[in-house]
Design brief:
The chain is built from 13 helices and 12 strands. By secondary structure, it is an alpha+beta fold. Helix 4 crosses helix 5 and helix 4 runs antiparallel to helix 6. The protein is elongated and about 85 Å long. The chain starts with a helix and ends in a 6-residue tail after the last strand.
Length: 410
């Protein structure tokens, strides 16, 4: 009943606007049919741009490329010379000055050709590069969520009477988080800057880059301290996990404080619940899971897992209501289908937990497998094009908009 009540409360939560910088108007319009080539192409964006990194290019029918002429606060202008007939393609990269999120997009217009030939269809699935980044993000999620779960299990095992064998190692999880984190911020920075020097500039230019650097530094420092058996590993790991919210979609919501707080709660509660399940799955109780100590550990975990799941479910529904334009998106959009699969995985974990609690079964390995799949779906959602709600907000004039976000929704 608590979970249902929280979910219903989430549905009434006021939605807030995202600060993703996407094209809201252009001259010429996407799919326009012109009698003569324009002398310039202009793009107007919904949010303030990072002027040093945002850019656009016009590609003429013969392959000649015209780069950005000027980048203003919310406008990019590209001068065009010549009057060749055919299809002109406009490609743009917008780096939001608010949160550092990157949107890639393109559209086309025609000169002396039929408008239908110039129109471009929207790309609705991630590119291979997006999926590769998503795989690295999945690795980072597994590591950070797993570390939080390990810390919970260790803390529970330290209660009186102590359960000394329940001390899972953090090394592998921290290594996964660090390797995945380095890969993710490297891919994000290169996507924003377009070159190695541009990537460095993105990471050093302001708060969006600094947050990403701080996260990976915390992951690396936690791993180094863990390998040397030094403290404090836990605060660094918790900082790295929470900082995902500061580099994700929540940072672009206005006002950001409430959204970031909800995202941090979501991450940490998911770590307690799903991460705890994954940590339990790595243990091998001396007397098996039917032994007295093993049952005692499972009971201790069950007391905190239910509350953690309730918080995860509540904040997850909150996030979903902000990403979807309507309930039908769950089965009519590819993004919604992935979100539905993720939700089904969460429900499967809940059923498995209920069986373990009521019938005395230990299903941690099965639950952990489902948790890994849920995190994979989460990483795929982060690699997807603009969620349905943002696609609707962007409008038809935005052309092809592809998002590269660091948001996490375990």
């Amino acid at each position: 009943m608590l979970v249902v009540g929280l979910a219903l409360a989430a549905l009434s939560w006021p939605l807030q606007a995202s600060a993703d910088a996407t094209v809201v108007s252009s001259s010429p319009l996407p799919g326009a049919g012109l009698s003569a080539a324009p002398t310039s192409v202009s793009l107007d964006f919904s949010e303030s741009l990072d002027r040093s990194l945002s850019r656009a290019t016009v590609i003429a029918p013969g392959g000649q490329r015209f780069p950005s002429g000027s980048v203003l606060d919310q406008e990019i202008t590209i001068p065009v010379t010549g009057d060749a007939g055919g299809v002109y393609r406009v490609e743009w990269v917008a780096v939001c000055a608010v949160d550092g999120h990157v949107l890639h997009g393109s559209f086309a217009f025609g000169v002396g050709v039929d408008t239908a030939q110039a129109a471009q269809s929207e790309r609705s699935t991630p590119s291979p590069a997006d999926i590769a980044t998503g795989a690295l993000r999945w690795l980072e999620y597994l590591g950070l969520i797993g570390v939080v779960g390990i810390m919970v299990v260790r803390r529970l095992s330290a209660q009186t009477p102590q359960i000394r064998w329940a001390r899972p190692s953090m090394r592998l999880a921290l290594a996964a988080a660090f390797v995945g984190g380095v890969g993710v911020i490297g891919a994000e920075a290169y996507g924003a800057g377009g070159s190695i020097s541009g990537a460095i500039g993105y990471l050093l230019a302001g708060p969006p880059g600094w947050v990403r650097i701080a996260r990976v530094v915390a992951e690396g420092a936690a791993l180094a301290l863990c390998l040397r058996r030094l403290r404090p590993v836990a605060p660094l790991a918790l900082f790295a996990t929470a900082s995902l919210a500061f580099a994700g979609q929540a940072a672009g919501v206005r006002p950001p404080a409430g959204a970031i707080f909800a995202d941090v709660l979501h991450l940490l509660s998911a770590g307690v619940w799903a991460g705890g399940i994954m940590a339990l799955a790595t243990l091998r109780p001396p007397g098996g899971w039917n032994g007295a100590e093993a049952r005692a550990l499972a009971t201790r975990f069950g007391r905190v897992a239910f509350i953690a799941f309730a918080i995860t479910a509540f904040t997850g529904v909150l996030n979903a209501t902000a990403e979807l334009s309507g309930l039908a998106d769950l089965w009519t959009t590819s993004y919604g289908l992935v979100l539905s699969a993720k939700s089904a995985g969460v429900l499967a974990m809940l059923v498995l937990s209920a069986l373990a609690w009521r019938r005395g079964l230990v299903l941690a390995r099965f639950e952990a497998g489902v948790a890994v799949a849920v995190l994979a779906a989460t990483a795929l959602l982060a690699a997807y094009p603009l969620p349905p709600a943002r696609t609707v907000d962007a409008g038809a004039s935005s052309g092809v908009a592809v998002a590269h976000h660091g948001a996490v929704r375990p």
